[in-house]
């Protein structure tokens, strides 16, 4: 009984080819323009909505694929097209997953459709956790949510930063402190509905890469949301806080055993898959170029110095994909991440994307350094993968703590 297979099934291949077609025909041709404009590519998001790629249905189908490969496959293909545009397309999905994972059925049914809007009037959503003084160090978050029992409302105050789609989103998911004594265990997530007074966009960042994706500060000034906007509900929150207070009494050593937090381990491979998409895109351009560019009367790929680089690039990309697929498979099958395999996949894939896109520039020579060719954009885009969803240093920290059980700093 040989059940192990490395092959995608027919349905997955069909979805992959369909996504690849959209990435090649719609996303890639628009990439340079939206990178220069540094604006959200609304018409491309609308095209994605028309064909069903920009929708909860599509995202949920991939998310619940029993092999675990639905999301990594989709991410790789879309980000192969262009990272900035693809992030504009999947950014809403990342916020929606926060609601899918922690929300009640009613919250899922109410808010996720409003995150996407409809084909004629597409909307986006934002997930706001990072703050100016709480990036890697999530526990030092200051945005505060206080419960007003008389009105059954939460009052949220604080400043979020780096929010993808922040300020332009129809629905914002905001993480805030509900019990400052508990560090990151005292956080909760809230829906901020469309047009809620007190929520405004701060500065929009001008970025190095993924410039078609909107990144901005979000200011929350006395924002009031109904009790029903607390994801998961108050009863569940109170139970969770009570458990966290109990656990806070346990030794520091005990806490280190849980260094690989299952939620992040499950979501990080998706970012790894984005990185694989960008790396593969740059590698393909470089392979093609190396076969046609003549110097000294022969294609540059005839030189081992170039050919071996391409061999290494492809080897790293395939290895990255395998790590991503393993972690995604583990997540869907409920396997414990005893070696922080999700963080491993994100670390390796993002470092691969940075290195491979840099090598692609080198292989294209002067052309690689210009905006006439896409690899310089891909290199700028790739730099994000080692930063967001936990920097490479933080991935190493999580892996090392998980392996050793020690409170490594
Ligand atoms: C384009 C973009 C989009 C983003 N989108 C979102 C979003 O939608 N929602 C959201 O909430 N956040 C988002 N982020 C935020 C992102 O997750 C953070 O930037 C990231 O977590 C790093 O935080 P920081 O920028 O404050 O860096 P810092 O935490 O200040 O880190 C600075 C440097 O110090 C290193 N460092 C920090 N602590 C340690 C340590 N203990 N050991 C070793 N090295 C350490 C880091 O690795 C890094 O190299 C986005 C960021 C960007 C740039």
Automatic annotation (TrEMBL):
Residues 126-223 form the Acyl-CoA oxidase/dehydrogenase middle domain. Residues 259-403 form the Acyl-CoA dehydrogenase/oxidase C-terminal domain. Pfam families: Acyl-CoA_dh_1 (PF00441), Acyl-CoA_dh_M (PF02770), Acyl-CoA_dh_N (PF02771). The keyword Flavoprotein applies. Keywords: FAD, Flavoprotein, Oxidoreductase. It comes from the Bacteria. The keyword Oxidoreductase applies. Its cofactor is FAD. Residues 9-115 form the Acyl-CoA dehydrogenase/oxidase N-terminal domain. Belongs to the acyl-CoA dehydrogenase family. This is Acyl-CoA dehydrogenase family protein. It comes from Streptomyces actuosus.
